[in-house]
Amino acid sequence: MYNTINLDKLKEECGVIGIYGPGEQQLSRMAYFGLHALQHRGQESAGIAVNQGGQITYYKEMGLVQEVFSDDIIERLQGDIAVGHVRYSTTGESYVINAQPLVVRYKGGSIALAHNGNLINAGEIRDELEDQGVIFQTSIDSEVIANLIARYNAFGIEKAIQKTMGQIRGSYALVISYGDKLIGVRDPNGLRPLCIGKIDGGYVLSSESCAFNVLGAEFIRDVAAGEMVIIEGGQIRSIQYSNEQKKALCSFEFVYFARPDSVLDGQSVYISRRNAGKMLAKEHPAEADLVIAVPDSGTVAAIGYAEESKIPFGEGLIKNRYVGRTFIQPDQKMRELSVRLKLNVLKENIKGKRIVLIDDSIVRGTTSGRIVEMLKAAGAAEVHLRVCSPPVKFSCYFGIDTPTRKNLVGATHSIEEIRKMVGADSLGYLSIEGLLESIHESGEGLCSACFSGDYPMEVPKSGNKYLFEKR
Question: For residue 405, is pLDDT > 60?
């Protein structure tokens, strides 16, 4: 389970990393550190698979990276290619059998596959394969990808992957180890991020560039939408397997998911969040004495809001960084206690002041109400809540765990109703146009479906976001 304070946030599905480093003695340790840098993308399970001459060994378990791997385990994982994964489940239940990387042995050899994203036609493909006698070991859509690749093994790994990509629909950033190759694949719309870095004697593929800083890797470029990159023999090749015209990188990566020190498709996450704060100050000014953030995801936008509004930025909420994961509490009193365990009000800065409180998003509204209540109990004269994203009104089908629409407060309540619900003196959301412009001046090439309902592809009409969740 997760920190109660995070129940009012959308959850990313996972983070992937792949390292190609023949002769590197510390390859699995490098993958371990890379996963540490991507831990924010998934805290449910972690795994590393290493490839030595086509022979793959792996270890994966439930928990955080540092909980899963010991020095002894890392030392046992020796190879020339490593694939790593951290997971938050959207398809499949939270069991170790669903942890990744998936390691599949078939007639053509062995592959290790790590997947970030969600397939919207996985259910129908899985049904077809099961009708043909294929046996599935997990309840995750990533196994559909692995089985399709195995099915086409006679064509060779590269053609097998291309044929598989021709059948699946949805979002995916894949890192695959096979033989002496490390392969990265990004979906035709570029919904999920994937980038390439260079290290001494090898390469790194990662969901985010922040992992390169840890590994001492040099950022080369992002994998393009609809591109497959093949790393072998110390060289990197590219195959553009799809020319889908509608680029649609997830805008919520910039709002919340990605680390602020990452760069996605050429856009700095830090700069985009600061721009969002500035835009928010223009769209929803407030007369106040202090700008504070809900740490840590609202901090950069709060700095931007303060710069634009000329209202001083300061600390008002102190985050306990050592709480770790806490169980969801069964009653209201315990839930409120859990919020206070995670966040504490700095009363000396708050008392008697008119506060602008900056948060990145509101999903259910429950946590926002508790924070506003805490600030007012500490003596804040006014609390003006500002949200640096639009109201979340629609479910995501592409690897973000959004509640159903009936549980999305932005879909069921007006802004004034939400303001009353959370107890703020005023409430303002950044517009969709403001958000997209804060990320990219033209606002092009981004998916904002969770705000607008304008999906980059046709989505299931059944209302099921993840077609074999808890299958």
Answer: yes
